Structures are given as structure tokens and as C-alpha cells.
Amino acid sequence: MDDFNTRLKRAVVGEPDASLVFLGNFEVEEQWARGEHTLPRVSAASGSAVVNHMDEFALLLAGPADHVVLKAAPDADYLDHLVGLGIALPTVHVVADQDPLRNVTEDALADPALVERLSGLDAHLTAHGVSEVEERLAAATGLPLAAPDAATCKVVNSKVYSRRAADELGLRQPTGWACDTVEQLEAAFAAAAGLVERGEKVVVKEALGVSGKGIAVLESPRRMDRLFRMIAKQVEKSGQPRIAFCVENWVAKKTDLNYQFTVGRDGVTHFDFVKELYTEGGVHKGHRMPARLSGAQVDELVHTANLLGKKLAADGYFGVVGVDAMVDPDDGLYPVIEINARNNMSTYQVPSQERFVGAGQIALARHYPMRLTGEVGFAAVREQLDGLLLERRGGTGLLVNNFATVNAGARGDGAFDGRLYGILVGTSDEEIAAVDAEITTRLAEEDRR
């Protein structure tokens, strides 16, 4: 069976040996959402810097014939470590002057020399997701996009599209309403008021919210009324009558799932995987693979993926599609909570999973928070985690799949927060839990430099 890199190229270019230029422009939703009405939100500059340095995930998604554009040069010891594991790395292109608050595509556009270098490649441009910014880079370099246009990508990534697609296909989803106008939102709130009055929760979602932003949980009619008035006033003031929100019942669940399929230019859908979301204290921390599902549950997701793939292809989309789903307390499925027609966090784990997770093993992809007082190199972290890093296929330990996020929040003097991303591999949940606990303990040491 072909590996994921080959399958991806066959789907988005039509040639399994094509060369791709990868852009890890995480949270592309921020670009799609510009000019849209939003809910109140708070974001920190340090958090944006870490998210923008998630571009390094693309390093392990690409193959040796590919190229990756990064905001900063990877740690040399980290690259040596990957090569030592037998990973054939792509050609890396680093932007000349990265801005922590810009994503990698914006940095690339601001670097004329890099644009010129890319223009000389015989390759296609592929991204985490395509917005008008990626279209501008494609135009500047002359590289064809291995993706639909930005307008199509924005439409199919809307939560309004997800709800209406599931309704059209007769797929189970929580009670809810998709709203394009203030009048529809008012009617949705009126209908949802009965749920709130019965003690149930209602959630309001921006159509293009991401990573927990653009979502409000309502538990009282007063809160619902206040939020509606705020949105209506915002719309009136802007003169832009179109809105895009979903209002849904907050339903009970047993497990969160993420599954992925790839839609080819020819409309053929390939089911890639299903993973179980790993949470701590209700906060999403990563993915467990494989998901603990019955054969019938997996079959239902495969069937759903085929239906969604045909719908997306008919609407002009091809490429990677991630879908969030849930298992209810009675083991029934909500097979579509939302569609993310772009790369997902779990997408970047696939090549490492194929290479390093042996038969009968399980894996847990997660990140570790690090409180730092100064920048730290990979060699120091490797020493800190001596005996806990993965050394070979079939072994036990942590495979680091992004080191750039460790130091991304550094701002000269003063403490900052970093994240170390990796995939834990082992033969049982108990074994992984023990390694995970030891890693957490070692990384919790203070005053690391």
C-alpha cells in the first residue's frame, strides 16, 4: 500500500511522484474569517507566535523530493536526530525575516529572494489550508496550487456548510440551526430557549472559529438575549447584513473522534484513519491511535466519509478533509460535528505513525507545556529526556514531531511558555501512561535555559 505522502500527491496533483512545496499556515481560519461577524474573543501575542511556529509540523509530512517553507531554521541537533531515525527530510527554505505575528505564508510573501527561489521549482504549492494569502504566493511564484481556490475552501470549511451538508445527507447531528441572517439567528435563539429552560446547554459557534475561539456556551435566557443583542448591534453598525453562525444543543458524549479522508481531483474518496481525541480536564491535548471503536462504528464513519466526499467533490473541493465526530453515552455516533476541509493536527502525524508504530502498538500524540526562562536547544531537551525518546520502529518512547514551538514564545528577557509536541508509542495504555508521566515530571523542572 502506498504511503500517505504518495496518496496525497495522487489525490491533489494526479501524479504520485510530484514535488510539493508545503506551507504549515495553521489557523488559516483567521484569514477566512476576516470581515465576518464574530463573537467576543481574547487572544495573546505569545499564543499566536507558538501557533505560527507550528509550521514545522510540515517537515515530517513532506518527503525527500519535496520542499518546506519555514519561519525559522530548524534546530540542527533536532534535524540530526530525525536523520538518525532514518527519516529522509525535504529541502527546507527559511524566510529571511520572520514576524512572530505573521503566519509562514505572509512571511514568505515579504521575502522577495525566497519568492524568486520558489519560482524556479518544478513543483506544486500545498498548504494547511488555502486562503487569499496562499493564492497571492502562488501567483507571485508561478507555482500552481495543489488545491481548490480560496473561495471554495472558505465555503466548505464553514460550520454552516457542515450543518447543511449533514442535513442534506440525512446524517445524525445535535439539534441545531444554521444562520445566515439576524432574523434566522433570532428564530434559532427562540427555538433554543426551550432547551435552556429545561436545563440544557446551547452553544453558539462562529462559522469559521478555530481552536476554541469563536464559541459561546449559553445556560440562561438572559445570557442568550444579551448575546443576540450584541450580534444584532454589530450587524447594524457594520452595514453588513450577512452573518454565519450555528446554534446547537450541547449533547452528552462518551468520546470525541477525528477521522480523515482524502478527496481526489477525480472525486474518488479514500478513508485515511479515525483517531480518538485525548483530553485532560476537558481540554483537548492530542489523539490516541487507533480509536477504540467497534467494526460497525468504523464502517459507519467510512460510509459517512464517502457521502461527504461526493458532496464536497460536487461543490468543487478536493484534498484532505478532517471531520470531528462523537460517540454518545449509548455508543451511538454523531458522525458529523463539523467538517474541516484542510489539514488537521492528526494529518501531520500520519507519516510518523506509518513509519514508527509497529503491529500491535498504540500511539498517543500530544504536547507538553514548558515554562522557560530562556531559549533551550534540542540537545538539552534530549538529555533531559534521556531514555524516553523513541529510537526505532516497534520501540517505546516519544517521537518529537515539532521542536520549533518550544522557543516560539521567547521575547528576550523574561519567562515564557513553550510547547513540545510529540507522539508517544508503546504496547499498552499503561506503558504509555508511565512514559508520559515521567516526561511530564522531567519537563516540569524550573529555570531551564
UniProtKB/TrEMBL annotation:
One of its GO terms (cellular component) is cytosol. InterPro entries: ATP-grasp (IPR011761), ATP-grasp_PylC-type (IPR003806), PreAtp-grasp (IPR040754). Gene3D superfamilies: ATP-grasp fold, B domain. The keyword Ligase applies. Residues 163-370 form the ATP-grasp domain. Keywords: ATP-binding, Ligase, Nucleotide-binding. SUPFAM superfamilies: Glutathione synthetase ATP-binding domain-like. It comes from the Bacteria. One of its GO terms (molecular function) is ATP binding. This is ATP-grasp domain-containing protein. It comes from Umezawaea tangerina.
